[in-house]
Design brief:
It comes from Nothobranchius furzeri (Turquoise killifish). The chain is mainly alpha-helical and 317 residues long. It is built from 13 helices and no strands.
Length: 317
């Protein structure tokens, strides 16, 4: 379907429109009457179809890579645009001429094909299955992690939660995409987000948390590092909410700026002469780098090849 979009102009009119500048090779041109085919190309109906096809060519790539659902804002926008184009094609006056009727019919078929492709992918059983698994993961994380922390409590992170998330990951890998680019894109997106959440949550389990903070009495820099670590803990919660679509205010860029500022603050500390404090700062910096890694992946989510490479590297661990 999508490969046809880029051949629309040629298939519709036989030759690309040249603005009426095509001339025969050879000596000076002598006045001549327009050939009927040239008259058809300059006909107002044909010119209008050319304009419509330019919009189709511009919109086609977005339709062919859209991986969302019918209630997404981008879906509704593209559906409106395609419906508008279809109405404009239907309103082209062909004056009963067979050639113009054929061109109008082919233009309508291209637009209808894009509309159908857009709807098929957004309502495909596999796409709905992916969404169902994503919603289950979102509810689980909200109940055990995000909601308790927003209420001022402590996240309920344990092996049972992590095992359930892992089961959802495995079920996502089993969803068939039938080779459709939008479905592959949606599955990779869901998988990498869920795997990122697993990494973040595993970093908060008791057996992987830092053995510090150190006592503030041992070094004046320790108090500053302790404060940074509290902010890092808050950033972890924000990242989990962001990855799972549970944050309406935060963004990747905003959270990345916060973490980068924390890095700068840590770098400015004088920890010379105290190996324990240096090691403490190093551990917190590594925590921040781990969060920034996931933010980078989330921000580059449209790069499917990068997402696949990261996901495969995790599965092979």
């Amino acid at each position: 379907m999508c490969a046809n979009v880029f051949g629309v102009l040629k298939s519709l009119f036989g030759k690309p429109f040249d603005g009426g500048k095509r001339m025969e090779h050879g000596g000076p041109q002598e006045p001549h009457h327009q050939h009927p085919v040239e008259q058809q190309q300059h006909h107002p109906a044909m010119m209008r179809l050319y304009e419509v096809q330019k919009e189709v060519l511009s919109l086609g790539p977005h339709v062919c890579t859209f991986s969302g659902l019918q209630d997404d804002r981008e879906y509704k926008r593209m559906e409106r645009e395609l419906t508008r184009l279809l109405l404009e094609v239907d309103q082209v006056d062909t004056e009963g001429k067979v050639e113009l009727q054929g061109a109008r019919k082919r233009a309508a078929q291209e637009v209808e094909g894009l509309l159908r492709y857009l709807e098929e992918n957004a309502t495909h059983p596999s796409r709905l299955a992916m969404e169902e698994l994503s919603v289950a993961a979102r509810q689980l994380v909200d109940e055990h992690v995000v909601a308790p922390q927003r209420a001022g409590g402590v996240a309920e992170i344990n092996d049972e939660l992590l095992d359930t998330l892992q089961e959802l990951v495995l079920r996502l890998t089993q969803v068939k995409t039938e080779g459709r680019v939008p479905l592959r894109k949606a599955r990779y997106r869901a998988l990498t987000r869920l795997c990122a959440v697993q990494d973040v949550l595993e970093g908060r389990t008791p057996h992987q948390t830092l053995s510090l903070p150190l006592s503030g009495d041992s070094n004046e820099a320790v108090h500053r590092i302790n404060q940074v670590m509290v902010k890092v803990s808050m950033a972890r919660s924000q990242l989990v909410a962001l990855l799972m679509g549970l944050s309406g205010r935060d963004s990747c860029a905003h959270l990345s700026r916060i973490l980068t500022e924390l890095q700068v603050e840590l770098d400015a500390l004088d920890v010379s002469g105290n190996a324990a404090v240096r090691n403490y700062r190093k551990q917190v910096v590594e925590e921040i780098n781990g969060l920034l890694k996931h933010l980078d992946l989330e921000g580059e989510g449209d790069d499917t090849r990068r997402l696949v490479k990261w996901f495969l590297s995790r599965v092979q661990k």
